[in-house]
Structures are given as structure tokens and as C-alpha cells.
Amino acid sequence: MLSMYDISIPPLKRTLTNLSQLLKKGEAYAAAKEADPAVLIEARLFIDMYPLKRQVQIATDMSKGAAARLAGVDIPVFEDNETTFEALQARIEKTIVFLDSVDPKQLEGSESKSITITIRKVDIQFTGIDYLQKWVLPNVYFHVTTAYNIMRHQGVILGKSDFLGPRK
Known about the structure:
By secondary structure, the chain is mainly alpha-helical. It is about 60% helix and about 5% strand. It has a single domain (about 5-160), classed as Four Helix Bundle (Hemerythrin (Met), subunit A).
């Protein structure tokens, strides 16, 4: 039987690890083109969408927030001040280290836990399982997909296998 840990922490870690690999390809692309990496980091698909760096920040925020809320621990605070590929990679790494610190026992019973998040001054209430399946995972996948699309739109050679990562 799958546990809350099984359906949260490993998929989040895998997705962030894949995001890290996508960013490595983006950084290599900028270097090969002798382009300022900041151009890619600040790139966005449309004027009303967040840039690449914010997509990474949101994906990591969603991941660490989910692990913390479900485990009943404090959410690590990151400054949202990343302006380089190196800093974005460090943010992903800090998030994965935090996810690794969560013990499966901390998530036992969290499927029925009451979770409240506030979005634009509106409280949204979930059970733990609904929070994970209907809010966290879709949001993480959306922002990682958008990061992929931003880089692809800028010319970085990426394919579906880059998004999905190795078959492990």
C-alpha cells in the first residue's frame, strides 16, 4: 500500500532533480551561445507570466511547503533572491536536503490532516491528500513544465526525456 510519504516526497525529489538537469542544459546553452545567462534566467513565455527564476522558486516553495505542512514542521524560508544558475541550483539542492530530512513516519496519517493555505488573502482548506493531489503536485508540475517551456522557447535543446528524467 502506498503511503503519503511514497506519493509525495519521492515524486517531488524526482521532479526537482529533473528541474536541476534542465537548468544545467540551459546554463550550458547560454555558455555555448556566449549569451548573458541572466537573459535566460529572466526570460518568460508571455509578459504576464513569471520568468524562469520565479518558476524555480515556486516549484521549490511548493515542494518544501508540502513536506513541512504534511509533516507538521516549520517551512524553511528562502529569500527568493536568486539571479544566477548557481543560486537556482543551490535553492533546488536546499529543498531536496529538506525533503530528505522528512521521515516517512512524520507523514503517517497526514492524508486526513487539515491543511489551510492562504492565497491572495483567501483561506483555502484541504485534507492532506487533497492538498497533495489537487494543489501541490499539479502546481509543481505546472511550474517545472513552464520552466522547461521557457528554456525550450529560448532555444535550449530539450526533449520529453529531459523533463521525465532517467527511468529509475
